[in-house]
Amino acid sequence: MRTRQYAVTYAARPVKQKAVTANDLWNGSNPPTLGAGDEVRFLECKVNDSPTWFTDNSNNGSQLENGITEVMNKGDVNAKLYAYTEGITPLLTSAFGWEVLAGPVTTGSMHQHLIAYQPFGRDQRDWTASEQAKLTGYSAGDSYNPGYTFGVSEGPNDIIARYAVIESITLSCQQKQPLELEFTAVTDQVIRDNAKTYSPNWSIAPNTWQNYFAMKDVTTAMIGPVGSMVAAHFTEFKVSVQHGIVKDTQTTLTAVGRAYPYSCDFSKLGFEATVFIHDSSQWKTWEQNAQNLAVKIQFSKGNNNLAIFITNMQFSTVTVDYANGGTVKLQGSIFAAPSTNNSVFTDPFAADHTALPLDIQSPLYLLVTDSNANNTLHFV
Question: Cα separations (Å) of 350 from 81, 353, 374?
Fold first, then answer.
């Protein structure tokens, strides 16, 4: 039986976004302290530290090597959790890279957030003049800073991934199962705190991490060309984002730290699902014609909602399985601009969020309704 001493608890919080100094940024000396309200109910969260070593093979008069020296310290985070109705909004914003700056929109005690995949990179930077004008309460020194800090308290150690940039995220759901989030992140440094200085103060914020969305909570599921979408009986689906970043790079200014994982490569966004063949007669036609498609999947639980919108996708593979209940496995790629010429942005779901229009060109976004009253890009 596991004793309380060896129980595992997790915590996470965004890095500093307001009155940011160089010490609050990647490789800075002032990482966030995890504390009250930061405990998270991850299914699992693994923080791996993997230093890179240099082996001295110079001739020392024997057949033994001269020893090893650490030349770069790096860490990675792998985590999984259910899509809780309350608590996940800041994490989703960090993973996707953007929340519409005019949000959230408030109705009674609930607040609607539009969280979008950021196609123009998630590099830490100053807000532009036009962005500053849209932010409520902007002050000089506030920064676009979508990093996160993760903590694992297990046994004699607290393990802290002190500034992490989420590299990939998937949202997946199967019949009879909850909606799950799974992500990977790269971090500038992993700290092992043998004194367990802060974890005794970790606690769950009120009304968070209690209920989660599941397949039974889906109220809308549609797919097809804009203007002629059809209802789809998804028995499973997965939406994936792999950000194009450079990692594990050392420069003359990083000492043993890794350089910030700047956006410098193509991102890959994907959609997979299994549906019934009778939902549409067009599955193979859409694949063979490289048809531009849109997807909407909405979960509702009480006053909480989470809707997934894909505005521009094409099937790469459509596999029909007549022997398995007449199912069709769909695999598609999500592209940058939802239009036939990939140059003019059109949001086919604009009517679903008229009070909160997109302010970036994104082919994938979420509409989340919860009790969080803060814009999650500008609140800590």
Answer: 30, 6, 22
Number of helices (H), then strands (E), in the chain = 3, 23
Q: Which residue has the tokens 């006053």?
A: 303
Summarize pLDDT for 97-107 with one digit per residue, the tens. 999 999 999 99
Cα 147–153–154 angle (5° rounding)?
140
Given this model, what pLDDT does residue 165 score? 93
CA distances (Å), 23 to each of 29, 30, 143, in order?
Answer: 5, 5, 13
The model's pLDDT over 143-171, given as tens digits with 9 standing for 90+, comes to 999 999 999 999 888 999 988 999 999 99
Give the tens place of pLDDT for each residue, 262-291. Answer: 888 789 999 999 999 888 889 999 999 999
Residue type, 240: S
Give the residue, 301 or 57, on which the prediction is more confident: 301
Write the CB contacts of 288 (distance below 8 Å, at least 6 apart in sequence).
none
Q: What are the structural domain ranges in the chain?
A: 4-56+70-370
Give me the half-sphere count of Cα atoms (radius 13 Å) on the Cβ side of residue 295.
Answer: 28
CB atoms within 10 A of CB 191: 16
- Work out the average pLDDT over 214-230: 96
Per the DSSP assignment, residues forming a β-bridge with 209 are none
Asked if residue 365 lies in contact with residue 347, where contact means CB atoms within 8 angstroms, the answer is no
Residues whose CB falls within 8 Å of the CB of residue 270, separated by 6 or more in sequence, listed in order: 238, 239, 240, 242, 331, 332, 333, 334
Rounded Cα distance between 252 and 55, Å, is: 20
Task: Please report the DSSP string for 213-255 in residue order.
Answer: -BGGGEEEEEEESTT--EE---SEEEEEEE--B--S---TTST
Q: What is the pTM of this model?
A: 0.92
